[in-house]
Write a structure and sequence with these properties.
Radius of gyration: 30 Å
Distance between the termini: 72 Å
CATH topology of the largest domain: Rossmann fold
Structural class: alpha/beta
Number of domains: 3
CATH superfamily of the largest domain: P-loop containing nucleotide triphosphate hydrolases
Number of strands: 9
Strand order of the largest sheet: 3-2-4-5-1-6-7-8-9
Low-confidence stretches: 512-543
Shape: elongated
Mean pLDDT: 82
C-alpha cells in the first residue's frame, strides 16, 4: 500500500492468520460477518489477501468451504497461485492455527486498526507531497485550498473507519425525525397495549411498558439473600418463554439445570417445590406435572448451568443462540459469579464488574436482546436490613448503574418483621386495605386457609405473601414502589392486578394506606410497608 519497507508499516501477521483460521473453521457465519467490514486492502500479507479472496469466491459460488475444497480450488486455478501462498502446508497451518473461534471479533478489530493506520500514512504522504509541490504545478492552488482538501481526505478516512469498526454516524434531523414519526405512529396504533417483551407481572409491564427487544435493554433484578432473586428470574422465564413462547438463554452459575426445571415445572404447575426433595407427590400433583412438562419441553429455552462461565462464554454462546434459535432475551444468575478473561480484571473486583457489564452492554446492542441480570446486594446493605434498598446498596453499584436501563429491588417485609410484631393498628390497616381487593379478585390473593382467625387468618397469609418491587431506575420515567405476590411454596411471583386495563380502582396497582400515627412500644414495621403517596402509619425507628 505504501513504498515504505513492508515490515515497517502497521500490520499484524498473527491477527490476519487468526481471522482466516476462524473463517475456515466456521465459514458460513464468520465470513459474511468479516466481509461487511473488511475492504480488499485489509490484509497486509499478500498470501493472506489471496486466501481471503478465495474464501469469498467459494462462498459466492455456494460451494462447501473446508480445507480440502479450498486447497483444491486454488490448485485448479493454476498460475502457481497455490505455491505463491506457501502451498497446501501453509493452508493447513492456518486452519489449525487456532483451536477455537471465540476471539474472532478481537482479531477483526486489530486488522481494522492496522489498515486504518496504513491508510492514514498513505493519505499523509499525499498531503505532504502536495504541500511540497506547492507553487510548482501548472495550475496553482492557494494554501487554504490545500488545507481544505487535506481535511476532506482525512474526514473521508474517518467516516470509513467509523463504519468499518461498527460505529454509528450522527444522523441529521431531516432523516432522523422520519424514524421518530414512524415510531410514534406505532405507539399510537398500539395505545393501551404493551409494546415489547412482557414480563407477565402487570405492575412491571405498566411501569416499563414492556421491554424493548428491538434495541435491547438491561434489566437488573437485585436483592439481599433469600429475597427471591432467582425465584423472580425463573418466574419471568416461565411467563416469557413458556407463556408467550419467546425464545431465550439462561446462564445459571448458581443453580443446576435440574433445579431450574424443578421451579419451572413444579412452580408453574402449582405444586410445592419442596416436594422435589421429599418425593411426596399426590396423585393430583403427578397429573399436574404430566400436563405441564410438555409445555416446558416445547419452549425454546437454553440453559447453561456451568459454574465456570466467563465473559468470553457469554459473547460466544449468545451469538450462537441468536443465530440458531433467534433468542430475544438472556438471563444471568448472577452477576458476581461470571468470571472475567482479562488478566487485570482477574485481580481487581472493580475491574471484573466493569468487564462483565461492558460485555453485557455489547451483547445487548450487538444482538438486540433483553438482558435480565440478577445481582446480589452488598454486605454493607445488611446494616439497613428491613429498610427499602437504594442504588448505593448494589455491590459494584457504579458500573451497574452506568449500564443498566432498569434497576428493580426485591424486598419482602415478612423476612424482617413478622405478623405478630406489627401493631394492632397496622394489622387492621392492612386487612382493611386488601379486603375489597380480595373479594373482587380472589385469584390474586392467598387461599386464606393457612391460619385460624385468632392467628391472623387470611390477612396474615396475604401479608406473608407480600413482596415489594422498588424501581430505582427506569429509562422510561416512573420509579414507583410496586406491591406484588410471592408464593414461597411455589417459589413464584405473580401480580396483584387481575388485568392490565381497568376503570375500577380496585384493579389498579396497590397503593398505600394510612391510620392515625401512633407510637407503639416494640411494635415496629419496616419502612417498605409505606406507600409512595400517603403518610406511613408506622414507627420511624429502625427495625
Amino acid at each position: 500500500m505504501t513504498d515504505l519497507p513492508p515490515d515497517t508499516v502497521p500490520h499484524s501477521h498473527e491477527a490476519e492468520r487468526g481471522l482466516l483460521s476462524c473463517c475456515m473453521q466456521n465459514p458460513q457465519e464468520l465470513i459474511p460477518r468479516a466481509r461487511t467490514r473488511l475492504a480488499p486492502d485489509a490484509f497486509h500479507h499478500p498470501a493472506h489477501a489471496t486466501i481471503w479472496d478465495w474464501l469469498l469466491r467459494l462462498l459466492d459460488a455456494n460451494k462447501p468451504i473446508d480445507l480440502a475444497t479450498l486447497t483444491n480450488a486454488i490448485r485448479e486455478a493454476g498460475n502457481s497461485t497455490l505455491e505463491n501462498i506457501g502451498g497446501p502446508g501453509e493452508l493447513s497451518d492456518i486452519y489449525i492455527y487456532l483451536p477455537v473461534t471465540d476471539h474472532f471479533d478481537h482479531y477483526l478489530t486489530i486488522i481494522l486498526e492496522r489498515v486504518t493506520l496504513r491508510r492514514l500514512i498513505e493519505a499523509s504522504k499525499g498531503i505532504i507531497s502536495k504541500a511540497m509541490r506547492y507553487g510548482q504545478d501548472t495550475v496553482e492552488a492557494n494554501a487554504a485550498d490545500l488545507v481544505a482538501a487535506a481535511e476532506s481526505e482525512v474526514f473521508a478516512l474517518l467516516q470509513q473507519t467509523v463504519q468499518a469498526t461498527g460505529g454509528t454516524a450522527a444522523i441529521p434531523s431531516h432523516t432522523g425525525v422520519i424514524d421518530w414519526v414512524e415510531h410514534m405512529q406505532r405507539v399510537i396504533d398500539n395505545r393501551g397495549k404493551i409494546m415489547g417483551l412482557r414480563t407477565g407481572i402487570h405492575e412491571l409491564d405498566m411501569t416499563m411498558h414492556g421491554l424493548d427487544d428491538s434495541e435491547g435493554e438491561i434489566l437488573v433484578l437485585a436483592g439481599r439473600p433469600a429475597m427471591g432473586k432467582t425465584a423472580l428470574g425463573v418466574t419471568l422465564i416461565h411467563n416469557i418463554c413458556i407463556g408467550d413462547a419467546v425464545p431465550g438463554l439462561m446462564f445459571s452459575a448458581e443453580m443446576s439445570a435440574n433445579q431450574v426445571y424443578t421451579r419451572l415445572v413444579l412452580g408453574g404447575a402449582g405444586i410445592d417445590t419442596a416436594k422435589a426433595t421429599t418425593g411426596m407427590f399426590s396423585h393430583h400433583d403427578q397429573e399436574a406435572m404430566r400436563r405441564h412438562v410438555p409445555l416446558v419441553q416445547k419452549a425454546t429455552l437454553l440453559i447453561n448451568a456451568s459454574s465456570q462461565i466467563t465473559t468470553a462464554d457469554l459473547r460466544a454462546q449468545v451469538q450462537m443462540a441468536k443465530r440458531q434459535h433467534g433468542i430475544r432475551w438472556i438471563m444471568v444468575d448472577h452477576l458476581h459469579l461470571i468470571k472475567p478473561v482479562s488478566a487485570q480484571a482477574q485481580k481487581d473486583e472493580r475491574m471484573k464488574l466493569v468487564e462483565v457489564m461492558e460485555t453485557l452492554q455489547f451483547i445487548k446492542k450487538e444482538h438486540k436482546v433483553i438482558v435480565f441480570l440478577l445481582v446480589q446486594m452488598s454486605r454493607e446493605s445488611d446494616r439497613n436490613a428491613g429498610k427499602p434498598p437504594v442504588l448505593a446498596d448494589l455491590s459494584g453499584s457504579a458500573a451497574i448503574e452506568q449500564y443498566a436501563d432498569h434497576v428493580v429491588f426485591i424486598h419482602r417485609d415478612d423476612e424482617y418483621v413478622k405478623w405478630h410484631r406489627l401493631s394492632e393498628d397496622a394489622q387492621n390497616a392492612w386487612s382493611n386495605q386488601i379486603a375489597p381487593r380480595r373479594d373482587r379478585s380472589p385469584q390474586c390473593w392467598s387461599s386464606g386457609e393457612k391460619y385460624r382467625d385468632d392467628e391472623g387468618g387470611w390477612a396474615r397469609e396475604d401479608y406473608e405473601e407480600k413482596a415489594m418491587f422498588y424501581v430505582r431506575k427506569n429509562r422510561r420515567g416512573p420509579t414507583p414502589e410496586l406491591q406484588v405476590r410471592y408464593q414461597k411454596t411455589l417459589t413464584r411471583f405473580s401480580s396483584r392486578m387481575p388485568t392490565l386495563t381497568s376503570n375500577n380502582p380496585l384493579d389498579h396497582q396497590m397503593g398505600s394506606y394510612t391510620v392515625p400515627k401512633k407510637k407503639a412500644t416494640n411494635d415496629k414495621a419496616p419502612r417498605s410497608m409505606r406507600g409512595a403517596q400517603l403518610e406511613s402509619p408506622f414507627d420511624d425507628d429502625d427495625t
